[in-house]
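Input chain follows. Return structure tokens only.
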Amino acid sequence: MNEPTLPDRHAASQPSRRAVLRASSLVLLLGAQQIARGATIVAVRVWPAPEYSRVTIESDGALVAKQFFVTSPPRLAVDIEGIDLSPELRELVAKVKPDDPNIAGIRVGQNAPGVVRLVVDLKQPAMPQVFTLPPVAAYRHRLVFDLYPAAPVDPLEALIAERLRDASGPAATPVPSPAPATARAAEHDPLGDLIAQRANGPAQSGTTAQPPVVAAAPAPSAAPAAPSRPGNRPTATETDRIIIVALDPGHGGEDPGAIGPSGTREKDVVLRVAHLLRDRINATTVGGNPMRAYLTRDGDYFVPLGTRVQKARRVQADLFVSIHADAFTTPEARGASVFALSQGGASSTAARWLANKENQADLVGGINVQSKDQHVQRALLDMSTTAQINDSLKLGTVLLGEIGNVGKLHKPRVEQAGFAVLKAPDIPSVLVETAFISNPEEEKRLRSSAYQEQLADALMRGITRYFAKNPPLARSRSV
């Protein structure tokens, strides 16, 4: 057998120049296709709510979008650059629900090579916000469309409508009248004014009906005005007003909160407990004064922390109770906790850690940091007073005592830290961690309807005990 010559032996062990050139061209071609492809869509979501509807497009890379709004008929058009129409984007069409209060439908199409146009048809005039969010928690890059009604939903109007709708329902359960406190001049009661105007109905024949005067609802980032909290409480021994308790189910929408080992989501559990507690509050009177619960969110949608505070102040809430389910890095942690605001440092390292975690809700849920009046909103949240904190500690103490009767406590006293959602300067505010959802045993209890009922009962007993010793603020007219 003849041995190959040196050149032939070299050719057998090395690829030809032509082969190398072909391989290089293939690599360059694939690289060019990768660059041209841009980001890949990994998920799309639609979150309907009366206050606003949100559309989220999640991708593995940042998206570049240009938007324009058409007023008649109202619709938002967004051109997303650097991508092609994909099955994931087509899913948006089917994700719009018929009962969405703001979105009539969504259309998507390839507007040009590498440009996808998305059109959101609206049911009413809107003030859209389009912004991007960097990766955080379990999310990658997000392109967000927040569609706010041009006429914003007023929390006070919503509360009045619910109150009048339920006025013919079963009588509320009475609670003994609280002991008198130091009297002072009564504050103005816009809720009482509006309920009286609504209840009177149309004017009698021969007169001109006057519509109720309603204060303009604040923009999503605006800070509503509210009276400062005085140091002394007034007497409230007569049926002169409605007692309003703001219930704040934590997280919601894009922000699921903590997730248990079996997949239980905090946002779902706390909303259920809030609904049960609302039913109990609405069926109760204190000293002849009817009670009414107001929920900062009544469905699965995201509400920024500052907006939750603004809502409670807008309805002139007497108490603010934020409901959560705790989580920790190990499954051994267990027990319920109650927290109040601290103007200084946190009462423990754990309290500081939890406050930092809860205060990150805006990052996970996603807010438009370029929206106006952010500095005003943050200034508002720094106005909390010593009187508010003292009252919050009283409320937290009775709630902790009642919760301890139905479950294990993580700490035997009310803790304090700088929770942003507790910074209403004129409303006693607490945050209740019902249990550790990261603990398999407590997660199972939180999923139980029976335990949810027990939690609601315990919180209701604590609220009525608080009012028995701390009468609510008097207001200037009967309702």
